[in-house]
Amino acid sequence: MLTFTLRRLLLAIPTLLVVSLVIFLLVDLAPGSPLSEIPLTVPPEVRQKMIEAMGADQPVFVRYLLWLRQFFWVEPATLIDGWFGTTLAEGEQRILSWQSRSPVFTIIGQRLPQTLIVIGTAYLVGVLIALPIGIYSAYRQYSLFDQGGTLFAMIGFSVPTFFSGTLFIIIFAVWLGWFPTKYDTQLEVVDWATFWEQIRQMALPVMTLGLANAAAISRYMRSSMLDNMAMDYVRTARAKGMSERTVVLKHVLRNSMIPVVTVIALGIPTIFGGAIITENLFGVNGIGAALIGAIHANDIPMVQTLAFIFAVLIVLFNLIADVLYGLLDPRIRYD
Amino acid sequence: MTDASALPKPVSQNRAIWNQFRTHKGAVFGLVVLTLLILFVVVGPWVWVPEKLKVAEAIRLKNQGPSLRFPLGTDQLGRDMLSRMMLAGRISLAVGLVAMLIAIVFGTLVGVIAGYFRRMDGPLMRLTDMFLALPLIPLLLVLVMLFRDRIASVVGPELGAFTLIVLAIGITSWMATARIVRGEVLTLKEREYVLAARSIGARPNRIIRRHILPNVVSPVMVAATLGVAEAIITESVLSFLGLGFPPDFPTWGRLLFDGLQYMQVYPERVVWPGLAISLTVLSVNYIGDGLRDALDPRIRGR
Q1: Which residues from B are below 8 Å from A15, CB to CB?
Q2: What is the pLDDT of residues A249-260, one digit of tens each?
């Protein structure tokens, strides 16, 4: 298992390098770079200085290697410095945003908590809704509940989050007035009143994302349960006179969770992509919003770094899913 | 002698597929809804011709509620919402279909080559893995943002937006098809009839066209239906984030985006395009579900 994990980690390195190159070149070589948008009234020598100040006068591959070094060495080193007070990254240049001239990772560090709170809660809620629905749908296959669950999943699949989110805003915020329409990023939780306020403003984004996630996961849960219900060991367990509760919730559920856990792990990076929409709709000032802002402002280092972080997340969670599968299922041995 | 009359009458394959498809209630519902939607956007603009208004008149007629003259009301510039919905639907569906075609053709090509020629398998599958690791929505946004003006200056803003978005969605959504097709081809090429074809000296080209491709049609068709739904959603996400089609050449996603500002006062302007997208995707997904069952000979006839 360890060798497998190591081998997969090593294999991930070339993939990530190619992906980083693609992202870097795509963003860098595209027309419409900010260098072409410096007004013509700016004198040539000032223009030259501006370009130099942004570090954009170097050849592409130099900038690519510099960016890689900053991403994989300087930024982690800065993080360690921050934690332990060492001076690993002293004097090194960090990845700077062109919009604000502050380090990209500082901005991400400020934005990430917002994203994680909302998106994380939404994913958790989604999983918690999905599992019981999937289990009971499978247990009572073709029942009214199962058909309702199928319809719910199909609708959850098909209604895009930007529409379901808008509908929720119209119904729950505009008509009923239960929740605020916009998420207030400034709100700090200090007492019960602000905590309640935080819950209320999180309700709509969490509901929107949670339902979309629940739809997919409940389907996986159901089909995985159905596969296991037909197994011989289930019949044996019943023949031994075990209660239905033990059979379903212990024997079948445990085995059915194996593929579902990997699906849940695989879904985590994609929700960051989906979060871009939800954050945009509700005004959550997270990393999705940061990405949109950077794209509109032609902030190339920010876009490259954020896009690459998303890619790292995808590769990382693919790896985690594979390893989890091997750990949970003794029948699967990779070596 | 067996009694021939006791056997059920043999039916053609297409008939059998149709019979199985019909038993799937959701699929039939999807087919009906999708047909109605297609009629709405294709035939609709001929049936419902909006009156030509002068700019001054149109401005006076802005933000109207539903009436006989404007069944879905008018927008903030006095444009008839019903005809805008029809035209936007044409573009949305066209984007979905064309992007799906690109993805399917490319995915099938990669899948067949990777599955049939062992030497190409490794590199092509690594390429597929790499594409799967790309963060698609951020990359699509960047692509559209950076190349929109350049392409628009070559082929014009409308066609430019269409080409760019369709290409971008197409080249980022072929991976699932490629994997499915590769898997199918890997098992198909070990079959006896492929061996027979090879033994009489058929070239790979001929084997692929005569024996492999016809047998991967059914999984590809299912992937294609689901691909349409996905492409429509992706396009509307781009439009929703303001990086899709220009407002005078709208899609349903763009109409929804435009309606967002007026959501509190005129919610119906968000609801109609959103409902249209959701219904299209829902019906296409149901059709895909039904097709999967109908095209699977193991399920069919049970």
Answers
A1: 126, 129-130, 133
A2: 888 888 888 888
User: CA-CA distance, B75 to B63, in Å (whole number)?
Assistant: 5
Residues in chain A within 8 Å Cβ distance of B252: none
- Average pLDDT, stretch A24-36? 67
Contacts of A169 in chain B (CB under 8 A): 263
Please write the tens of the pLDDT for every residue from B124-142: 988 888 888 888 888 888 8
Q: Is A19 an interface residue toward B (CB < 8 Å)?
A: yes
What pLDDT, on the 0 to 100 scale, is given for residue B200?
A: 93
- B158 pLDDT tier (thresholds 50, 70, 90): confident
Provide the pLDDT confidence category of residue B111 given band limits of 50, 70 and 90. very high
DSSP state of A42: S
DSSP string, B4-69: GGGSPPP--HHHHHHHHHHH-HHHHHHHHHHHHHHHHHHTHHHHS-PPP--HHHHHHTTT--S-SS
Question: Chain B contacts of A314, Cβ < 8 Å?
Answer: 132-135
Q: Which residues in chain A have Cβ-Cβ distances shorter than 8 Å to B256?
A: 162-163, 166
What is the pTM (predicted TM-score) of this model?
Answer: 0.84
Q: What are phi and psi of A96, to 5 degrees?
A: -105, 140
CB A122 within 8 A of CB A210: yes
- Farthest CA pair distance, chain A: 88
Chain A, residues 94-153, CB within 8 A of chain B, namely none
A59-63, A146-150, B23-27, B229-233: least confidently modelled range: A59-63
For residue A292, pLDDT beyond 70: yes
* Spatial distance between the Cα atoms of A48 and A54, rounded to a whole number of angstroms: 10
Residues 6+ positions from B63 with CB-CB distance below 8 Å:
B73, B74, B75, B76, B262, B266
Neighbouring C-alpha atoms within 13 Å toward the C-beta of B146 = 24
Cβ A32–B277 below 8 Å, yes or no?
no
Residues of B in contact with A158 (CB under 8 A): 229, 278, 281-282, 285
CB contact under 8 A, B270 and A314: no
Amino acid at B237: V
- For residues B75 and B180, the model is more confident at B180
Question: What is the predicted pLDDT for the residue at A128?
Answer: 92
Please tell me the distance in Å from A266's CA to the nearest CA on chain B.
Answer: 11
Cα-flanking dihedrals φ and ψ of residue B74, to 5°? -125, 160
Residue A295 at interface with chain B, using a CB cutoff of 8 Å: yes
Min Cα distance A78 → chain B (Å) is 26
CB-based contact, A160 to chain B, within 8 Å: yes
- The residue among A166, A181, A266, A281 with the most chain B CBs within 10 A of its CB, best to mutate, is A166
